[in-house]
């Protein structure tokens, strides 16, 4: 500003100085020059503070005004208004009032001293009164002008401040609006890109009217196959379909009619018509006044979770192979039915396939599984109403019959008729892999009674099934109270077998085998159990018990040890002969079986070629290659193998050819009919011929008559074993019998 004033001062001072020179007004010229010089110096002194520069500027104005009044006259007092105006603008009200007072003092002093006399009409020019009046009038006008200027400046300043604040507020609002818009765009983009499905619907004040969809994100459109145009404006009911649960849909509608949020799992339908499960969170949206304006629905596709849950449920409650309910599902239903047994009659059928193990062992698990699936289909086809068929495991099935009217006798008769129908249906031939199979079933029946537990009912039906098997299989047996005692006896027998083994109640007997010349050629080790009370338990009773309880592995290892020790005693007395020991499939599949045999032979000194392991044909079922490899390993050591009960199972000659066999044992059921029965005789002759072709030794079991012995001697001359020659005896009795025979046993090692 000083620069502007300096320029203006120079522009106005030059003409003034020129005029002053013409009129010889040198004091005036001096005042102008001093003022301009002072102003120029002030313009150059830029380091002075703002207040110092303003004070100097006002002082220059005072100086110029006084000079003008002295040189021009009292009329120049108007210039003394400038300091106060400049002061109020540049410094504020208080400095401005001081400047007004200073200007009034200058007028008063100049008037009283005569340097600038006031000229007032009616007053002498040199009068005291005129000076006082001029001073007072100046002070009044100057103060008014100064106060008005100051007030106006304050208002202008406040207005400018308000304007700046308003502008700042507008800018802040603009920035906030931009930020809000950016956040809205970001939120919209984020919602649009969510994997969760989001739709927003406008809330209707009339629940009966549709609530139109106004927003659908990309995930929703991808999941349903609709376009945004096809969805917007439509009601959410457009996604319902034939598989949508109407009860759950009604529950959702009820909550929405009341303006209540909820969560739900519902099947909805895509544009293609495909149904899929979604988990919905439905929330009402309210504005700042609390009015319900919209619905926000967030959904997640849970089809895979539902599939997994259904799969878990299927695995937990249904048999994988047949699709029938499993034991767990059956027991739950039994508990429910038994709780109703006071008013509803029923029965439980326990079905066990006869000789299923033969099919499984000979033909393999794949064929066995096909047969089990066929069995399940047959049983299911005969189940009606609220009846239930289930598979317990293996070849065991159960049918729960309910709603049978009448007393116990009527229920038993109806259940027996149903069981017989199932048995007849199962006996029909079925084709599996171009082979025809037929299987019978033993069926036990137990009636539902009040207060009975599911375990007791199942146990009773199981007991009745075993009675059906004991009666010759392929039959039906109804549980009777006497069977409970038999069941308890079976449980007791299982416990006593384990205890008896530990107490040494079991022993090994030997049954000699003879060649065609009636000379001892070997012996079979047979296990016997004499209980502590002296009663004998038949092997066909306790051996199956050992199989089911797992004790067979310990019994088998013990029997192998006893055979090695028996051979030691026989050899010590000059009667060394091959000894045969039965090996169960369970025992043979033990990982350490080969090592166990090797250790027993090494510890007792029994030559490996004097040990014959008798196995069944089904030993190769399962891990065929591993089983045959294990047999090859034992055969490499010198151990020999015999197929026991040959001909009773489903013989697979391909596997027999791969086995390192030493002998075949013809089952006694065939020998019993020889030579009187043409079929049995033909089977024996075929086995002998096949063995000759395969260069295998043959042992005929169950030889009890001279007629049988003569026939066998004339047709292949196999070795013979049976009551005709010798009964199973303890080792001491066998040694005595060999001593009586008075002859050494031929060495079979080279055969």
From TrEMBL:
Residues 262-314 form the PAC domain. The chain crosses the membrane at residues 25-43, 55-76, 96-116, 128-153. Residues 490-742 form the EAL domain. PROSITE patterns: EAL, GGDEF, PAC, PAS. Keywords: Membrane, Transmembrane, Transmembrane helix. The keyword Metal-binding does not apply. Residues 213-243 form the PAS domain. It comes from the Bacteria. Residues 344-481 form the GGDEF domain. NCBIfam families: GGDEF, sensory_box. This is Phosphodiesterase.
């Amino acid at each position: 500003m000083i620069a502007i004033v300096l320029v203006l001062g120079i522009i106005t001072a030059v003409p003034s100085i020129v005029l002053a020179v013409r009129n010889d007004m040198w004091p005036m010229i001096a005042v102008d020059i001093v003022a301009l010089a002072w102003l120029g110096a002030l313009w150059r002194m830029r380091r002075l503070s703002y207040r110092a520069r303003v004070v100097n500027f006002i002082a220059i104005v005072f100086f110029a005004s006084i000079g003008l009044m002295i040189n021009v006259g009292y009329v120049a007092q108007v210039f003394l208004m400038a300091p106060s105006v400049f002061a109020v603008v540049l410094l504020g009200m208080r400095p401005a009032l001081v400047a007004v007072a200073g200007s009034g003092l200058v007028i008063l002093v100049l008037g009283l001293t005569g340097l600038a006399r006031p000229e007032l009409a009616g007053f002498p020019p040199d009068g005291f009164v005129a000076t006082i009046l001029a001073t007072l009038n100046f002070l009044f006008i100057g103060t008014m002008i100064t106060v008005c200027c100051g007030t106006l400046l304050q208002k202008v300043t406040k207005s400018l401040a308000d304007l700046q604040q308003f502008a700042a507020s507008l800018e802040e609002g603009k920035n906030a609006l931009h930020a809000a818009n950016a956040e809205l765009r970001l939120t919209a983009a984020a919602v649009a890109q969510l994997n969760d499905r989001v739709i927003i619907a406008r809330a209707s004040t009339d629940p009966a009217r549709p609530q139109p969809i106004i927003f659908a994100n990309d995930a929703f459109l991808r999941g349903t196959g609709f376009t945004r145009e096809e969805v917007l404006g439509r009601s959410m009911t457009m996604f319902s379909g034939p598989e949508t649960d109407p009860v759950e849909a009604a529950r959702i509608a009820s909550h929405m009619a009341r303006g209540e949020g909820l969560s739900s799992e519902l099947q909805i339908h895509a544009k293609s018509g495909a149904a899929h499960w979604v988990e919905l969170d439905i929330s009402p949206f309210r504005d700042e006044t609390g009015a319900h304006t919209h619905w926000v629905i967030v959904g997640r596709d849970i089809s895979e979770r539902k599939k997994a849950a259904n799969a878990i449920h299927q695995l937990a409650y249904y048999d994988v192979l047949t699709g029938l309910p499993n034991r767990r599902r059956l027991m739950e239903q039994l508990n429910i039915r038994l709780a109703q047994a006071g008013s509803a009659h029923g029965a439980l059928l326990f079905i066990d396939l006869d000789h299923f193990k033969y099919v499984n062992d000979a033909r393999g698990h794949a064929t066995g599984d096909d047969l089990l699936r066929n069995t399940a289909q047959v049983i299911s086809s005969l189940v009606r109403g609220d009846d239930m068929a289930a598979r317990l495991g293996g070849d065991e099935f159960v049918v729960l019959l309910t709603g049978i009217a009448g007393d116990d006798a009527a229920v038993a008769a109806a259940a027996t008729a149903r069981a017989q129908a199932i048995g007849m249906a199962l006996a029909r031939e079925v084709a599996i892999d171009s082979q025809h199979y037929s299987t019978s079933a033993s069926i036990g029946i137990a009636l539902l009674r009040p207060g009975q537990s599911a375990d007791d009912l199942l146990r009773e039906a199981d007991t009745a099934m075993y009675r059906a098997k004991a009666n010759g299989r392929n039959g039906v047996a109804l549980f009777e109270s006497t069977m409970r005692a038999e069941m308890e006896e079976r449980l007791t027998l299982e416990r006593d077998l384990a205890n008896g083994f530990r107490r040494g109640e079991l022993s090994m007997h030997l049954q000699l085998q003879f060649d065609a010349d009636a000379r001892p050629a070997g012996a079979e080790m047979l296990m016997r159990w004499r209980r502590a009370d002296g009663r004998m338990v038949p092997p066909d009773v306790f051996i199956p018990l050992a199989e089911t309880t797992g004790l067979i592995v310990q019994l088998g290892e013990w029997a192998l040890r006893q055979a090695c020790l028996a051979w030691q005693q026989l050899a010590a007395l000059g009667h060394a002969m091959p000894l045969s020991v039965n090996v169960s499939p369970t025992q043979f599949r033990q990982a350490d079986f080969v090592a166990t045999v090797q250790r027993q032979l090494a510890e007792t000194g029994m030559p490996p070629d004097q040990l014959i392991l008798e196995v069944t044909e089904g030993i190769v079922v399962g891990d065929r290659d591993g089983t045959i490899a294990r047999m090859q390993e034992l055969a490499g050591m010198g151990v020999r193998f015999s197929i026991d009960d040959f001909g009773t199972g489903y013989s697979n000659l391909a596997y027999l050819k791969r086995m390192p066999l030493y002998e075949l044992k013809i089952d006694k059921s065939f020998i019993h009919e020889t030579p009187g029965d043409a079929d049995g005789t033909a089977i024996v002759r075929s086995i002998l011929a096949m063995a000759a072709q395969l260069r295998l030794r043959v042992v005929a079991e169950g030889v009890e008559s001279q007629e049988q012995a003569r026939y066998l001697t004339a047709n292949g001359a196999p070795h013979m074993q049976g009551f005709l020659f010798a009964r199973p005896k303890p080792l001491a009795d066998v040694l005595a019998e060999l001593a009586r025979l008075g002859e050494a046993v031929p060495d079979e090692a080279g055969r």
